[in-house]
Amino acid sequence: METLKQQYDLPARRCRMAGRVGLVTGGGSGIGRATAILMAQEGAKAVVIAGRREQEGQAVAAECRALGAQSLFVPTDVTREDEVAQLVETTVARFGCLDVAFNNAGLQERRALLEEQESSVYDSVFNTNVRAVFLCLKYQVPVMLKQGAGRIVINASVSGLRNPNAGLSLYSASKAAVISLMRSAAMESAPRGIRINAVAPGRVVTDMMLASGIADMSAVAAALPIRRMGKPEEVAQAVVWLASDEASYVVGHVLAADGGFIAS
Q: Where are the domains of the chain?
């Protein structure tokens, strides 16, 4: 039977999260799941998993505990202010602080031309991708200010920097808004001891990517300079680096983990 380290192809422990309390929204699958597991593997004291799918969230929390971190799943709809407030309150009440937050929850619309999209779809995409980030920052930043320090990473997308596909205009616009929101928050928070950055994944194999309607995944991979799709674990490495002391001078930055897509 494979060990967790073999299953997730994790590198040797470097303890970049040693003793810290991390929070991952949308932590039940994909990039969120990979990041939560890496936080635990990197020595986190505790990892809180937030999301709407309890079975998946509980499974990730169990995996984090198997790697030596305390962990719990908190059922959360990050578009609801009361639930975000409760999530942060629960984290601090249970573990005493909040050192690192990865605001990862996201939604991509069904691929269609702009004029074919319903306004209700706009609301869903922007509520999940923008409003939720605002709410998370609204409640995470005050806690970190009281502590005197904190690190926040937001999951953006290369689509917010360069729209690669027709039919995903709402997703692309929401991620551009997230990047602008992150930069403003970073400028406000950096003088007060909180570093805020974003990661911008490119073509990464996740459930959302697989459901995006791409007909030929091999053709997409072949068009990338690196000639392959990315793995959630590779984006997780970027997230944990941004949240670590190794990135202590990095503020308001968008780190593209994209196999060279933006540069091409």
A: 13-257
